[in-house]
Write a structure and sequence with these properties.
Strand order of the largest sheet: 2-5-8-1-9
Radius of gyration: 24 Å
Shape: elongated
Number of domains: 3
Distance between the termini: 44 Å
Helix content: 40-55%
Oligomer: single chain
CATH architecture of the largest domain: 3-Layer(aba) Sandwich
């Protein structure tokens, strides 16, 4: 089992082995989360690489990745545990047929580990091959405040209390990553139990490095033009600015079209890979594309 990184630089280099390129501030908070065994709460725009950190850590540390995808209405039965009522009913019917009428003994037999269905949060507290898993609680802002309350015991003590069985505590704490796109504010009680970091859009140099790492087949010229154009339109009044994920997707489309250099027509034809809202596409398409491309070229000259 790979050992945990011993320094910030080691953490950054370890993530880079999985093609996850990050700046020093993000590398620092990831290193501290690993060293202090603290949950890490990451907020930021969609597509800036928050979720990908969990995948990268899982791969480079050889740990299992357990993912809880949050959504409105998520409850304990779906996220933590529930009892296998169907199996319990079968056991009750079997006891009735066999003439076993000791209700107290039957109740004890039904409330056991055998009838417990483990959901992601409980599963993450149990021993896993390769060591404690990486637990990704993704898009926590999609849930509601009552569900956040379920998480407080897990995040502070790495345990879950099941009324019928008592507290189940992890022998070794999992590596916990929580993400939020900030569609709503998450309660302070949850944030207090975590290290916090706002994941920003990368600067020009970092995004260029990310693109070249993810898609080495893209020429240096086209990579530079792509990043310059993306950074230019991020300054526009858009409903949703493109994240790193969209930059990479757009670059893949341009490569698939054998694009050598950006031009207004190819940009207009592929805007659906970069922007995900029709209003944004209408705003950028047409004559506006030419203006933005000219601005991007000026930025390119400045960056050179």
């Amino acid at each position: 089992m790979p050992t945990l990184p011993s320094s910030i630089d080691d953490t950054i280099e370890l993530l880079a082995t999985q093609n996850y390129i990050c700046n020093r501030s993000l590398g620092t908070v990831v290193h501290l989360a690993l060293k202090l065994q603290k949950p890490l709460f990451l907020e930021g725009e969609a597509g800036v690489g928050k979720t990908e950190i969990a995948r990268a850590l899982s791969q480079c540390l050889g740990r299992r990745l357990i993912r809880l995808q949050c959504y409105e209405g998520l409850d304990a039965a779906s996220a933590i545990y529930e009892w296998n009522f169907a199996a319990q009913m079968i056991a009750i019917r079997a006891a009735e047929v066999s003439g076993d009428t000791d209700r107290h003994q039957l109740q004890k037999e039904l409330i056991t580990d055998e009838y417990l269905i483990r959901r992601p949060l409980l599963e993450a507290l149990e021993p896993q091959p390769g060591g404690p898993p990486v637990l990704l609680i993704d898009e926590i802002d999609r849930t509601d405040e009552p569900f956040e309350a379920y998480l407080l015991e897990i995040l502070s003590e790495f345990q879950i209390t099941i009324p019928e069985l008592g507290a189940i505590k992890a022998d070794q704490p999992p590596i916990v990553i929580l993400t939020s796109n900030r569609t709503r504010e998450v309660h302070d009680a949850l944030k207090r139990r975590c290290l916090y970091h706002w994941v920003e859009f990368p600067d020009f140099d970092l995004e260029l490095q990310i693109l070249r790492t993810q898609l080495p087949q893209v020429t240096e010229q086209l990579s530079t033009e792509i990043v310059n154009f993306v950074h230019t339109i991020r300054h526009e009044e858009l409903f949703k600015s493109p994240g790193i994920a969209e930059t990479i997707d757009w670059a893949k489309c341009l490569v698939a079209l054998d694009t050598v250099a950006l031009a207004p027509d190819v940009i207009n034809d592929t805007l659906g890979a970069l922007l995900k809202y029709q209003d944004d596409i209408v705003r950028i398409a047409g004559a506006e594309t030419t203006r933005l491309l000219d601005e991007a070229k000026q930025m390119h000259s400045h960056n050179d």
